[in-house]
Amino acid sequence: MKAATEAVYLPMLFLTVALLGGLRVDDRVTFVPPPLFALVLGMMLFGVLVRGRVVAPDRLMSASRMPLENLNGLVVILSTFFAAAQIFNLVTPESGLPFLLFNVFLFVLLVNTLAAFPDRVSVLRSMAIITGAAFILKFIVLGALSSPGEGVLKRVLYVLLEGATLGTLSQPILHPAAGYIAFATLSLFLVGLAMLPARTRSEALIKLNA
Amino acid sequence: MKERSVRVIGLALAMFYASFIVWLYVRQPQTLAEVTGGLTATIGAYRINQQAFDDGLVLFRRDEFEASRAAFGRADPAGQDARTQFYIAYSYYRSGWGRLYQDNALFRKGLEHVDTAIALAPDRRLVVDDPELYIHSADELRAELAEGLRIEASDFNPLRVFRKRK
Hints:
The complex is a heterodimer of chains A (about 210) and B (about 170). The longest helix of chain A is centred in the middle third of the chain and has 27 residues, at about 120-145. In chain A, a hairpin with a 3-residue loop joins β1 and β2 (about 30). Chain A has helices at about 5-20, 35-50, 65-90, 95-115, 120-145, 150-165, 175-195; strands spanning about 25, 30. Chain A is mostly helical and about 210 residues long. Chain B is elongated. Chain B has a domain at about 50-160: Serine Threonine Protein Phosphatase 5, Tetratricopeptide repeat, CATH 1.25.40.10. In chain B, α6 (about 105-120) runs antiparallel to α7 (about 140-150).
């Protein structure tokens, strides 16, 4: 891997994801740090990345590397972890029953992926599907359900839904820019994952004498 | 560029960017002015707009509190100057004060600003030497605002109408 990728591009990219992952745009801008469970999910995701050979930690930090190279590698590892935690912070609903359900589903999905021992491409594809599905559920499905809207019929349906679910389903109304920021952040994260130094599968060439 | 230089520059950039992100999450700035003001205050280079501050002071002394707050806001757009925040809090106190009752919304805003002033002051101690003020210390102003927001038996004392605005 080129020095610029390891020392500049990857840390900048993942730190930007860590910054934008907690950004909440409303009538005022707030930066939300990751909840404890997002840190747990982030750690599990990092485990999945290592197990799936998306990242090879020994290509970032090892005794054979110079101290400065190891420092750059440490920055990549830490920024990847915090970006992963902030991605879960971003795609998880803010409160109520969806918050609990999303966390449980993400946990189960990551445990399943850890147990499956997948290859690099499968892990990258799996990450895109997990985060993409969570994005659609939070920013499109729940976003639409939580917005009372302007039509009378939509308002009536909203009140009925609120009553039927005892208010546990609805979320704070999302700012129109929130979905776009989240989409850009997710895309950056997936690009970053694909750029990580991967472990190449070693292959032996065996000549068979017929 | 040599590989070593790239690595050193990358490390420095990452450290700076990470510190900036932590700062954003801790300070929660709302506007670009607050971001730039907060950063310049961190290195001790923040200066208020003195002309706007003087305008605010003149308006404050004429009891034109809303106008004075606008001027003070212009003087300290980043909310980083303890003295200006003290005057903004004081103007909320005077705006909200009444003989029969006080405006809780204004008192709450005053409390927010005086808390900011206390947090910004060195050793959290702020004393303003202005002979035209009745309250000189931020702690005293905070106590006055907090007391105004509490409902106590003394609030129903009819002799309250004779008390003086500070």
